[in-house]
Amino acid sequence: MSQSEPAASGPAELLRRRLDDDPSRPLVTYYDDARGERVELSARTFDNWVAKTANFLVDGLAAEPGGRVVLALPPHWQTAVWLAACWSAGLVAEPVDPAALRERAAAGAEPLGASGPYILAAAEEVLDVVLADPGLDTDAEEVVGLSLHPLGGPLADCPVGVTDYAAEVRSYGDRFAAGPQVSPALPALDVTKTTFTGAELVAEARAAARKWELGASSRILVDMPFGTLDGVLAGLVAPLASGASVIIQRNFDKATLDRRLTVEHVTAVAGLPGWKDASGSVRRLA
């Protein structure tokens, strides 16, 4: 990490620094072993998606700095894009694990349990659950559905009142300019009933990167939901703070592990069963 980084920078500034340093190097790689998917995004491509999504939020959904966005999304490269887009636009991201939503619904509880106003971004696989939440009509200002299709395909069936992200986002510009109200002092992340400003989130990321000994040559394989601070740090912000790149893993097939560690030049892992380091969620490899 550069010693010249400003103490009060936010996560959007970390992405801009990454673009300045090495825009063509991979930033996020995504695997879904159940679907046989692999997607790799350079910092430049990732930033283009972030800019389009931020423009969609601001110009398409009228989101304003300080507003809240609930992300009912699984570990996925598009989840990382939405987090970064929220921070670029000065919005508070509240990631929740879709699996936890299904568990709450099965137990008879309100799956989201969120009070409004907020924008909801939900994966297609969990749309039926969130749309059944009795508080959704009064609290959610907008509902956006994500197919998470590897080729950017639309929702298989877009319910009434839901905006199809894939069908809308490509029409927005791939450059985003934040307004003067957006600053690192704004709330940026709400996880496990704790809110972090952009500056606090970056400070947490830099501390985690030092603890996990991440650097520009690090490649971290992550199999964690984004619904916790460690998940957000390992899956996006600590790699941004340290210059590392991240491999987001879903539906992990342990039979692929040895080959993936080699092919992807993995230097650290997070969230893999039996692979946690005693000092934290990330384990460095020899």
TrEMBL record:
SUPFAM superfamilies found in the cross-reference section: Acetyl-CoA synthetase-like
Residue span(s) of domain AMP-dependent synthetase/ligase: 17-108
Keyword Ligase in annotation: yes
Pfam families from the UniProt entry: AMP-binding
Keyword terms: Ligase
PANTHER family, per the entry: ACYL-COA SYNTHETASE, MEDIUM-CHAIN ACYL-COA LIGASE ACSF2, MITOCHONDRIAL
UniProt record similarity statement: Belongs to the ATP-dependent AMP-binding enzyme family.
Name of the protein this chain belongs to: TIGR03089 family protein
Organism: Actinomadura violacea
Lineage, broadest ranks: Bacteria, Bacillati, Actinomycetota, Actinomycetes, Streptosporangiales
